[in-house]
Amino acid sequence: MKHALITGGQQGIGLGIAQALLVAGFEVSIAAELAPDVVQVPDGARYFQHDLRGTDAGPLLEAVGPVTTLVSNAGVPARIRGDMLDVTPQNFDHTMGINLRGTFFLAQQVAKRMLATASADYRSLIFITSVSAQMVSPERAEYCLSKSSAAMMVQ
User: Fold this and answer.
1) Where are the beta strands (DSSP E) in 3-78?
2) Nearby residues of 12 by Cβ (< 8 Å), 6 or more positions away
3) Of 19, 20, 129, which Cα lies nearest the Cα of 73?
4) Which helix (H) or strand (E) holds 154?
5) Distance between CA 140 and CA 136 in Å, rounded?
6) Can you give the pLDDT at residue 42?
7) Which pLDDT belongs to residue 62?
C-alpha cells in the first residue's frame, strides 16, 4: 500500500497535496503541531499531532506505520518582518527549527526506515520550499535562510 506522510498537510498547498494523493489511492497521514480540534483533515486521512522542531520522530513514525512517500511541506514564516539587524535568536531558532532542523531529521529517520524495509512500491522524499530559497527578502531573513538551506539539503 502506498502511504504518504505529509507535514503541514492541514491547509494550503499541503492540504491540496493530501487531497490529490487520496484520490490517487494513497493512504495519507498528516503531521502538524496544531491541536487536532483546529485542523482540517480531508476525509480518509489520519492526523498526528507532532512538534516538527524535534529531532526524534520515532514515536510519530511508529504511530503512522510504514511510509512510502514523505512530503515535507510544513513551514513557518518569519514571526516579525523587519530589518535583519533586529532578528532575535528566538525568532531565528523558531523558523529554522521547523523549516530546516525538524525537516532534516524527520527526512533522515523516514529514509532510514525506507532503506531498512523491503518494498515493491516506489518510495520518495518530496520537499516543498519557496521562491524565497533564491530571492532575497531582507525583511524576512530567517525565513529566506531556512528555505535556501532546505533547498540545499535536497540537493
Assistant:
1) 3-7, 27-32, 46-49, 69-72
2) none
3) 129
4) helix 141-154
5) 9
6) 87
7) 97
Amino acid identity of 30?
I
Residues with Cβ within 8 Å of residue 85, at least 6 apart in sequence: none
Condensed to tens digits (0 to 9), the pLDDT of residues 3-46 reads 999 998 788 899 999 999 999 999 999 999 887 777 778 899 99
C-beta separation of 67 from 117 below 8 A: no
What is the spatial distance between Cα 108 and Cα 58, in angstroms, rounded to a whole number?
11
Q: What is the pLDDT of residue 37?
A: 74
> Interior CA angle at 15 toward 70 and 139, to 5°?
90
Spell out a b/e string for 109-143, using b for 16 or more CB atoms within 10 Å of the CB, else e. bbeebbeeeeeeeebebebbbbebbeeeeeebbbb
The C-alpha cell of 33 is what?
503541531
DSSP H/E element including 125: strand 124-127
Backbone φ/ψ region at 65: left (φ over 0), alpha (ψ -120 to 50), beta: left
- pLDDT, one tens digit per residue, over 58-115 is 999 999 999 999 999 998 988 899 999 999 999 999 999 999 999 999 999 999 999 9
Query: What CA dihedral angle connects 103, 8, 73 and 69, to 10 degrees?
Result: 80
